[in-house]
Amino acid sequence: MAVERPAVFVPRGRVRGLAYRALLASAHGLYKIGNGCLFAAAGVLRRDELQAASVDQYRRFNLSAIDVDAGLSPAEQHFYGRFLRPRARVLLAGAGTGRDLIALHLLGHDVTGLEPVAEVVDLARGHLYRRGISVTVDVGLIESGELRGPYDAVIFSNGCFSLLQASAVRIATLRRVAAHLAPGGRVIVSYHPARAQSSLGRWLTRAAAQLSGADWTPENGDTFTRDAYIAGLIRYHHAFRPGEFARECDAADLALLADEPYGEGYVFAVAERRT
Asked: What's the domain count of the chain?
């Protein structure tokens, strides 16, 4: 049975209707122009600037005790429960203010946090102290920070893997953490799945990057959004097409064990070193 499309809303009165339609069409057009400028502006940024802008959003994420004490999401509980060994030694990349750290510790795991923003690390340490929990949290990037393996698992906190810019960087990072895994150790990732993207937007970003001499090349799936709190700040994440994470695991000599969408806006995946 065909579903009827709702009638187009138009206010009463011919003049008012014409004015409404013209103004609404202008609003849509200006919105598209604004998005085009956003895509072009992203191409002007250098790699370290874009990464710093993307990481900056976590200064305002899970700040309150209520947020931190909320614990793991249902998807995290289910997925980690399937693929983490009991009392595992875990490195949590993108530890944030401590939500995952505290929850994993309370589940009996020996967890260490790695977080790129120093002031967020201070907040995490404050929440750990408040709960009377002793867990190490270091400042650093997973691409370059000190790793003290071997680990039974390296977990990229929700969406953090998508913040790694460029496939080559993600593959190198997977290789790096895999080298610090214990026998049978696993890498657990949650990432943003791909959605429809504007081909014109991609072209504008690439053109702006070439014209400005940016030190990176935009890739399909690179996504740019406005920050809701700070004017002028562009946020980046990479949205993965089906099979893309599997190919990156293969290039890093990792065997993909599971790659599953969950209802919380992420795909959860786990891989281990090939024997």
From this structure: 1
- Number of DSSP helices (H) and strands (E) in the chain, helices first: 9, 9
Phi, psi of 137 (to 5 degrees): -130, 120
Residues 237-256 pLDDT 10s: 899 999 999 999 999 999 99
Q: Are 138 and 146 in contact, with CB atoms under 8 Å apart? A: yes
Residue 79 backbone dihedrals phi, psi, to 5 degrees:
-70, -45
Tokens of 229: 């709190």
Q: Can you give the CATH number for the domain in which 256 is found?
A: 3.40.50.150
> For every residue of 102-151, which 3-state class applies, written as one string?
HHHHHCCCEEEEEECCHHHHHHHHHHHHHHCCCCCEEECCCCCCCCCCCE
Residue 5 lies in a domain: no
Give per-residue pLDDT as tens, 91-104.
Answer: 999 998 999 999 99
Q: Is 232 among the domain residues?
A: yes
What's the distance, Cα to Cα, between the start and end of the chain in Å?
A: 54
pTM as predicted: 0.87
